[in-house]
Known about the structure:
Blueprint: E1 2-5, H1 11-23, E2 27-32, E3 37-42, H2 50-55, E4 59-63, E5 83-84, E6 90-91, E7 97-101, H3 108-120, E8 125-127, H4 145-158, E9 162-165, E10 180-183, H5 191-197, E11 204-207, H6 214-226, E12 232-236, H7 254-261, E13 266-268, H8 270-274, H9 277-289, E14 294-298, H10 316-332
Parallel strand pairs: 7-8, 7-14, 8-9, 9-10, 10-11, 11-12, 12-13, 13-14
Antiparallel strand pairs: 1-3, 1-4, 2-3, 5-6
Phosphoenolpyruvate (PEP) binds next to loops.
Amino acid sequence: MIAVLKSGTTAAQKENLIKWLSAQGLSVHVSEGEYKTVLGLIGDTSKIDMDLLSGLEIVDQVTRISEPFKSANRKFHPEDTVISVTDTAKIGGSNFGLIAGPCSVESEEQICTVAKAVKAAGATFLRGGAFKPRTSPYDFQGMGAEGIELLLKAKAATGLPIVTEIMSISHIDLFADVDVIQVGARNMQNFELLKQLGRCNKPILLKRGMSATLKEMLMSAEYIMAGGNEQVILCERGIRSFDPYTRNVLDLAAVPLLKELSHLPVVVDPSHATGAARLVRPMALAAAAAGANGLMIEVHNDPMHALCDGAQSVTPDQFAEIAKAVATVRTAL
Ligand code: PEP
Ligand code: MN
């Protein structure tokens, strides 16, 4: 249930109402907008007398929310959430996040070369996997802790904040200086991991599971938010279907739909969605046109020799051209 308060409500009146609601066993999520305050009431609201609540002098309107995701729900929080890492690295609202870098960190030279190139092309975040979720245990598993150290070197060299995937909460200490923690498609419903990340104070980039519905994705965001961490970025990265021409099927309708349902920023990963470097540009442009708040693109200095996902990796030059074209689409919007 949500209660929208009238503008002009004093802090003391707000406090009193929150006390009264809490005394009825509800937890109250307060969202202060520019003009309105929205109270999200979480818990068993069946005993709340809606007429009594809506009749209060300071209450503008009361609505029952049927969706099971409360914190992620736009009804709770009408304004777009903006994830702000630095003055120039923000995602959400009118801020577009351009996250670029290799699938995996492979060496200091590789990650620093790519970091410098993508920064020059306008990227606002550097990505790179240190812990890699691979289908085969015999494939390259990532450099682990050393990979994170190399990402931090690339961050020091370029100033780009870093995004990297966590696979186990037992590694969390290694992520102390990571700016955005990625939860990959395979872990979108690793609820224990999500609960633990709900207790950390860093933005989480949550990728859609390969066969997850949008509701399931929002419920996963809810797991993180219910723990107190409201900094969640949703990432559409394609879902599995029957046509083997592409690695996955990019669900672009997810962008406007998620933005309708939730206030959280939505980014699109055209690299994992298609699995083919030549399809990254058109899908990146389409994602920007669909209203995405950002893109995550795999870039490798030598895709032919990449240890992971070379086929879908664009070169730094190709990335620079894509970044320009995306900017043109955004201006046209
Ligand atoms: C990745 O971003 O490197 C990755 C493994 O993506 P996904 O979880 O979407 O497959
Ligand atoms: Mn990859």
